[in-house]
Request: fold
Amino acid sequence: MGDNRNFIIAILLSVLVFVGWQHFVVTPRMEAEKAKQAQTAATTAAPASDATAPAVQGGAASVPSSTATITAASLSLDEALKLSPRVEIASDRVDGSISLKGARIDDLHLRDYRETVEKTSPEIALLSPARTDKPYFAEFGYVAAPGATVKLPTSDTLWTVEAGSTLTPKTPVTLAWNNGEGLVFHRTISLDENFLFTIADSVENKSGAPVSLYPYGLVSRTGQPAGKPFYILHEGFIGEFKDNGETAIKYASAVKDGPQTVSDTEGWLGITDKYWAAALIPQAGRPFVANFSAEAGANADPQHERFQADFRYEALTIAPNSSATVNNRLFAGAKVSKVIDRYKDQGIYRFNLLIDWGWFWFLTQPVFKAIDLIARATGNFGIAILIVTVLIKAAFFPLANRSYESMSKMKKLQPEMERIKEVHAEDKMRQQQEIMELYKKEKVNPIAGCLPMVIQIPVFFSLYKVLFVTIEMRHAPFFGWIHDLSAPDPTTLFNLFGLIPWAPPAFLLIGAWPLIMGFTMFVTQRMNPAPADPVQQQIFTWMPVIFTFMLASFPAGLVIYWAWNNTLSALQQGVIMRRQGVKIEIFSNLGFDKLFARRGADSGKS
Reply:
């Protein structure tokens, strides 16, 4: 009894330490960090600039670094857009504009996605021009060979519209610029029905002498995405190369470790966040050098850090009275699985890996495809999760059956196990030995009851990954109060699910679905025979409570899956127990039978 009491006290103390640490250390530290960042943003006063900074060296010529400096005097989006004439971008999926100054693609909104679940909230702004709070843009151009004095377009060059007035999936636009020294530059930009831009750059040489130029492309960003980084999710630089494999550099590592360079002939590179990405796709078969570089911000402020992914081709030599063209592509949009897969099928090397499927990709991708397919048929991702759970249970049905049959046999052995405990009450070692001999004699595996939970752990993690990284799950509603399956249950027990006008701290956000999950886990456990060891009994007793607190901050879709899976497990186990002739004694496992027997004895005496 003393061991059990000490075990319970240890658990309670652990919970108190966790709660206290969150409330008195973690939360104040986060608030202090936010205040520090706000103060830094308000006091930094470096002059705003869009000038070319020192470049990352990548061979004979280097790509310019075009990230703008962030200042307290940053302009609003509308003010920044007015600094240059623009060509409008309009399609069913995106809208925005191209700056004629520098011919940058630097203003792009995603029409299908909002900042919150409210339909009236602003569209997601993926790309933003220089001089705004967080510049993020794509740029293409040329650099000259070292020592050459050829006049080339820069970020300050004002291009003219040669053809087209609005960039749409049906109407490309062509820009032009004449350097006045015999070189005429043309840029034709096309857009497909989703998020892929095609940029055809050509140069006419009328100078009377050959010219060697190094075409380049870059994606430049200032500041990291909002929110804390997650271990299970990659955000930062990413690239896939045919001869060099994958390059994946998190934002913090990019600043700490310095630039990285890759040489290849096929692949892609860019910057990825949880749901969005901007990726450059060089022309396949043409050798290029890819660079990933970052620069720390003022006062070590992450919001002022600069990130640039760029590539540079080998020299392109244009003979007199001739022209040359290079074709590049830019993906800028949402990481929609079917769209990404379509681009891979169109020849972009391993482009499906733009979505971070994780180590369990062989489970994650099939689970997602099944959920996505069923969701299209039912119109609800929550229902799809329930149906996929049934399919997963069916796949593991034979293994789970053997496990539940073993547990049913253990249930039959309960009376004999209780007799052994009474006979050897003073000798714990002998007690355990006798019970193990009983297991061997009856051919019962005492750990078989853990198999249903063990076999679903990989599925659990793969579903967690699906809910966490796939944009299809973002803002996907279920029923009732669940408006976003990828976010935690917004309700909490500690304000009576919204009846009390009080916002509890984060560690007390125990919603309705986590409570349902905890209850189903509790019922499933109580259908099983209690472990012989008292300490194990206490662990199993507290496990539903611990899991309730743990999963409260997980995506609601994952908690719904776990609760539904527990319910199916309890039903399956109940059917098998009846088939084995074992009585389902949930109440007796709770100790209610002894309570009722005691009351009956007391009433008999009276």
Q: What stands out?
A: Residues 1-11, 21-59, 67-72 have pLDDT under 50 and may be disordered. The first helix runs from residue 2 to 43.
